[in-house]
Design goal:
This protein has about 280 residues and is α+β, with helices and mostly antiparallel strands. It is built from 9 helices and 9 strands. Helix 6 packs parallel to helix 8.
């Protein structure tokens, strides 16, 4: 077992989803099955769609804590080529403030609450408990890496990890002043409206929505595939009777977004599930 895989397994055992990085400290590119968006994901690798690829080809979205996946033949081949280990901070409930130079480090020391710090090549990573949207260049030399992003693992660091402060959240708000769009509701086909629901009680529907929410929020890897599968399961049972409402869809989208999915990604996964079922 090489050192990178050994480190990855140790992190995964502590609930931190990991992935290998190749030369250039970049994620592995799409495999031939996922190339050109064939798997339903997006071609930039960083926002994979409902893909069941067992490989390492969707950047942060491939990060996993499953030791069976990490030691599979496909992943083992990637670890042999890897130059370092990365992790998905948001999925581990963390936020990394990436300080790229000495000026950024000086600013952080004067502005942000102390927390665990890890030295990097030119600066430091400050790691806080709590997840938030990732944003690059929130100020000179400062990036925020949390949901839908990966960060290099550079060691355990020093200091006590503290809760994500409002000062860091405010950086992302300043960088993106627009309000985050709400999930676009995707209703069931109009022709099913008014059709008598064949389910005996509303409890059956509520249980189905709650189970789908739980399935999504408890996912520790393959989040995109899990979201798509949950959407597919709900639609296959309730998509034709007209009992689904916009409120139900919003609950499912909210669960997916709590795991780092974007509103656009939720809409795409829902549309793909409907297309699969020909709704």
């Amino acid at each position: 077992m090489n050192d990178h895989l050994h480190t990855a397994l140790r992190l995964a055992a502590n609930g931190v989803p990991v992935l290998p990085l190749r030369a250039g400290k970049a994620p592995f590119g799409n495999c031939r099955h996922c190339a050109d968006n064939a798997c339903g994901g997006r071609p930039n690798m960083k926002t994979a769609g409902p893909c069941r690829c067992p490989g390492v080809c969707h950047a942060w979205a491939a990060a996993t804590t499953d030791p069976h996946v990490l030691t599979s033949p496909t992943w083992s081949a990637a670890w042999r080529r890897a130059v370092t280990v990365a992790y998905h901070p948001g999925a581990a409930g963390l936020t990394v403030v990436d300080l790229d130079d000495t000026a950024a480090v000086a600013w952080a020391r004067a502005t942000l609450p102390a927390t665990r710090t890890v030295p990097t090549t030119r600066g430091e990573h400050w790691i806080y408990r709590g997840a938030m949207p990732s944003r690059n260049a929130v100020r000179p030399g400062v990036d925020i890496k949390s949901t839908m992003a990966y960060a290099r693992y550079l060691g355990p660091g020093t200091g006590t990890m503290t809760s994500l402060p409002d000062a860091v959240r405010a950086l992302a708000v300043k960088a993106t002043p627009a309000v985050r769009p709400t999930p676009r509701p995707v209703a069931v086909p109009a022709q099913t409206r008014g059709v008598r629901c064949p389910h005996r009680t509303p409890v059956f529907l509520e249980r189905g929505i709650a189970m789908a929410e739980q399935r999504i929020t408890q996912a520790t890897s393959a989040v995109h595939a899990t979201v798509y599968g949950a959407f597919l399961a709900v639609l296959s049972t309730h998509g034709r009777c007209g009992c689904l409402t916009d409120a139900h869809v919003a609950r499912l989208f909210a669960a997916a977004q709590s795991k780092g999915e974007s509103p656009r990604h939720c809409t795409d996964a829902w549309a793909n599930a409907r297309a699969t079922l020909e709704l």
